[in-house]
Design goal:
The chain is of the alpha/beta class. The protein has 18 helices and 28 strands. A hairpin with an 8-residue loop joins strand 18 and strand 19. It starts with 6 loop residues before the first helix and ends in a 15-residue tail after the last strand. The structure holds alpha-D-galactopyranose.
Amino acid sequence: MTARPGMHTLTEGRGLLFGGDYNPEQWPEEVWAEDARLMRAAGVNLVTVGVFSWARLEPEPGVYDFGWLDRVLDLMADNEIAVDLATPTASPPPWLGHRWPETLPVDEAGHRLWYGSRNQFCPSSSVYRQRALEIVTALADRYAGHPAPALWHVGNEYGQVCHCDESAAAFRTWLRDRYGDLGTLNDAWGTTFWSQHYGDWAEILPPRRAPYIINPGQRLDWWRFCSDALLDHFRAERDVLRERTPGTPVTTNFMGLFKPIDGWAWAAEEDVVSNDWYPEPGSPLAPALTALTHDVMRGLAGGRPWLLMEQATNGVNWRPHNLPKPPGQFRLESLQALARGADGLCYFQWRASRFGAERFHAAMVPHAGAETRLHAEVRAHGQELRGLGSVAGAPVPAKVAMVFDWASWWALEERGRPSDRLNATEQLLDYYVPLWERGVSVDVVPPSADLSAYALVVVPNLFLVGDRDAAALTAYVRGGGVLVVGPFSGVVDPRAHVRTGRFPAPLREVLGASGEEWLPAPLDRPVRCRWSGGDGFDAHTWTELLAAEGAEVVAEFTEGDLAGRPAVTRHRSGEGVAWYVGTMPAPAALSELTGRALADAGVEGALPGLPPGVEAVRRGDVLFLLNHGTATVRVPLPHEADDLLTGSLATDHVTLTPRAVAALRPHPGRPHPGRPHPGAS
Ligand code: GLA
């Protein structure tokens, strides 16, 4: 098998990628020359072109107009700016919906969604598929061999869902493939409940709006189907491109931890993993959530570099109230992505649109023009990235893994459970924060991953788990790993049937503890707990009636009916240790617990004594320190280092003002003052 092109294909000879979405079709051609000049001055070397150009490229069915795009691509090639050329299929032209209304998506209540915005297509529509593949084929044929396109950008932010009759037929086909016969489907969906037995495939529907709670097995398969249906479409476009331009990598832009798309399945089908990410400027959780999201992308990329396809230089326009970014903020965010494995830092978009739904969205060139504070920052950032090229390709080594699974996420968050306060991504972030605060790097992995290289594996929630994955977690511990499992895990099998017996049934043995009741807690007061032989702490929202079965009780509940019962357990099993957490500890307590598990695993953070708000992460031989806090801080260093950003030598510390970043590479041959030089007598 020949190796597929990937991020390395893009960075070789270019270094780190910097640029943004470029929509020249919104501007007269005179502006394009200025764009190219400004791009060069800013060090832009990659632009995404054509994402929303279908109506310009094919003004009526089968009639193409590529002239303008020829000129754009020539201009980019002349300026040595690579193009991430998009297939324009995220936003079909009005003629498609007008002539073929069946291509338009239908919501769960049966309402058709119309054109006039974007994303209006049914993933299972055969007409949409045919028309999309025709324009993709025409595009690929025209530009195969053109020097500008370096990457294919398929569609945009996939996530469409459609409940129409054609989708229903496709769902049935998908179910036939999965279950073979109706009897197996009826078993899987548990249709003896509420008289839901299906006697004919034709009776099966998408989970359209219904009077009351819909069958969770049906809903889980619907999530699976919707992700697969879109993936099937992505693959169809990708295959056209691969056939015509085998040397050009293919991507599609994700949206972080986005529920409708099974990231593990999708990432396996792309050459480059790319993400669109818009941290909320006012949110205190944004830096950690952003770090987690970047780690998810690195995980999806199998540890290889990934591309930050879209971020914003300033406020977006799609939140109800859009806080701006203070000076230095977008640079800080860009460098955070670089530190966590991104080899490209791109933006939405190059030049702010004068019209359309995103008139008030930030850009690299704002409405006020290039002679602005913001564009000056863009230019400076682009230039400084030229000096960081040696970071490209470097890995972000991690000894800790966090397990995350889309099917479990889908299954967990259905209606009709003990509490809807238990949310898969919130649990993930809760367990991530204390690792992030310590500068402990984390790989996010699927439950099927090979865990043997990790000293600590954290499973914040794995509501749905298959037998094989549960056995692998057990084997990991027996072989010497340290495992932490969060509440309401191991509850259902892949059909969303409850695993009977004491819970978490498939992990009970390795945890040396088990439970018999899930007990959501009153929301108006904390759940009081105590470390065994130590201090009290607060938890919230969720408790479980647990018993230790060989495990040591690390913390217990101290109030109410659960007083004296285990809240957290720790079990030596084989060569390893398995923790179970039967509640939702408050941040300080979860940090304490994380510290103990890290000690079990012998894992330390990137730098001891990190001031609050400072993120530390190693990429290759470079230690990145990023100050997300509002205070100027002094960070002690274990050795002298060159700051790649300032060009200065840091001896025993760096001082970081708010939003400042240091990128420290150990200084060769310069011993730390006060520490003997190796070889000195
Ligand atoms: C997404 C889309 C872009 C644009 C931006 C605005 O990331 O891909 O087309 O709408 O959001 O933030």
